[in-house]
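Pasting as-is:
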Amino acid sequence: MRWVYLILVALLILLQYPLWFGKGGWLKVWDLAGKVEEQKRLNQKTQMRNAVLDAEVRDLKQGVDAAEERARSELGMVKRNEIFFQIVNENPVSSVTAAGDVNLP
């Protein structure tokens, strides 16, 4: 009778092995579920970045104001018949850039 129990336990273990460690076992399913969640987060970040870039491209294609603003801020350009004034801060401790950031020496 003892042999029957041992054989049944061995069969139970053999049947459980593919469930836990096989090709479609629970451990692999849990691992893949984690990878799927990580990829979803990455996709969401990428979609948000793409939406910002798309809005910027549409703005540059449709409006002149965005191109003018970029030319002024990034390239330092001015319009014709426009007078440019540059205010130099005499305080050497800190200076304020055009973007409003404070630069300390």
